[in-house]
Amino acid sequence: MVAIRRASRYTGLSASIRSCLALLGFAGLLGGAGVFLLSMDGGETQRGTRGLVGVGAHSAGATLRKPHLVYGTAWKKEETAGLVRQAVATGFRFIDTACQPKHYNEAGVGNGWTAAAQELGLSRGDLWLQTKFTPIGGQDPNNVPYDPEAPLADQVRTSLEVSLKNLRTDYLDSWVLHSPLEAFEDTMAVWRVMEEAVDAGKVRQLGISNCYDLDVFRTLYQQARHKPAVLQNRFYESTKFDTELRNFLKGRNIHYQSFWTLTANRGALGSEQVKTLAEAKGLTPQQYMFAFMMSMENVTPLSGTTSRIHMAQDVAVMERVQSGESMFTTHEQRLFAKILGMPMDAPGSTAYN
Ligand SMILES: NC(=O)c1ccc[n+]([C@@H]2O[C@H](COP(=O)([O-])OP(=O)(O)OC[C@H]3O[C@@H](n4cnc5c(N)ncnc54)[C@H](OP(=O)(O)O)[C@@H]3O)[C@@H](O)[C@H]2O)c1
After folding, report:
1. Residue 147 in contact with residue 155, Cβ under 8 Å?
2. What is the pTM of this model?
3. What are the residue ranges in the chain where pLDDT is below 70?
4. Fewest C-beta in 10 Å: which of 7, 101, 147, 207?
């Protein structure tokens, strides 16, 4: 058994050494049960039997109130099952996919989480699964997971049934409309069908993605019977980091899920200034970015890493945030926002409350 105790003693270690220690724990986990992985809050987190801090069976509500990372499964093709299995073994519990074979292997996600659950003794309630209905415009015309000639409502219903089968589950924790449709009435027509799925107990909550227009989001919110609980968008400078939208989400219990979080901010993350800031907290620049995101109210970054080392780093920083460690002073948060080019009064950040 590998036992790494009292991680707070290691706060002086460089990020790379700490990552290696976390990896040691990961390797140990695969080797047998009852293994303890480095938990940077100074405590121990037993994996496989209890799951991550704040992530447990039938506690989705409480869990969602804790900052966390979502494991993203796009572009992994035939590697999907193995990577999802590895992500869960490392400590991810939230998984994002889509019923869009062009970019996602949804069945691979189903195989991956069930394999990991079996190995680790986890149940469905220990995982949080999110998938998407992708309108026809976002599908590969040669590989559409529903009848493209069928009425829109039927396309949505079929997509859900395909997702449930692929994911090997009888309910989704979260079902996201991949993007608004061209006509708002079509967006609402899809939403009404998605609401039926909530009524039927097949879906716990709804969301929308690639919605960068506050008016569209607000109108959807106003007209929805089951309000959106998620907005999944690209987090980047071109949209001013969705500052207005995130302001709208605040206080409405809507999570902002960010993608492109690292990719779109590579320049800032590669700078010497950020490397220095991150190193001072024993973090890599990428971990620092994720910590910054999780320090904002209701902001949840996605990580689609394919690297074992990065998986371990991502889980380690998530655990640090979940442990309640105060990672940023207001000054540090403002400084980093400025480096990113994010509006200084960005709402949604605890630093600006
Ligand atoms: N709704 C949508 O339309 C939409 C669009 C795009 C993505 N998404 C979702 O968002 C997920 C994430 O996608 P993304 O575009 O943000 O990019 P990503 O797939 O997470 O890629 C991030 C890049 O950063 C690198 N990286 C370096 N250090 C890292 C670290 N510590 N942790 C994680 N990555 C690190 C990764 O390389 P390594 O692999 O070597 O770590 C990778 O090249 C997708 O899988 C998908 O679920 C949704």
Report:
1. yes
2. 0.85
3. 1-64, 344-353
4. 147
